[in-house]
From TrEMBL:
Pfam family, one: RibD_C
Domain Bacterial bifunctional deaminase-reductase C-terminal: 2-182
Name this protein carries in UniProt: Dihydrofolate reductase family protein
Amino acid sequence: MRTLISTAFMSLDGVVEAPGGESGYRNSGWTFKDVEFVPEAYAIKGQEQKESTAILLGRVSYEAFSPVWPDMEEFADYKAMPKYVVSTTLAEDRLTANWGETTILRSLDQVAALKETEGGPIIVHGSASLNQSLSDAGLIDRYHLLVFPLLLGAGKRLFSTTDKDTQKLKLVEHEVYANGLQKNVFDVVR
């Protein structure tokens, strides 16, 4: 079974919306505007590219990343990886041609089936709504969280508010940086 890893920039109060400056959110760009840059805090991002073998995205994140990431040198490893987009509305003719193999998955059952295939880890970037659905369905195996020392209040959150049984996590890696940023890597305990 393949490991499904959710990776996120997150405020201390759980907001994941518009960390890189996407429009339409009051606190857009909070990762670089409000916290001093410390390069070593972002080393996990390079590690994720080297260890992942596929990317899983929701439609909104796919539409935000696909026009930009294919030409960015810092995301070069992702260009060659297979990409999977979970969407009930995205049409095949809307896929970006210069970003490699991309498959549209229409349901969480298809995500579960993908996890059963041969291969290495699948990384989930952005995709707040998808992350919530994957977590609620018990499909996420690991979380890579960079937690910023900020309280943003309103905004899309990584975790849903669904009333469900407790899901235990095991902290397997952590580090705190001079700027207050925390790296927390959790495995989901089954």
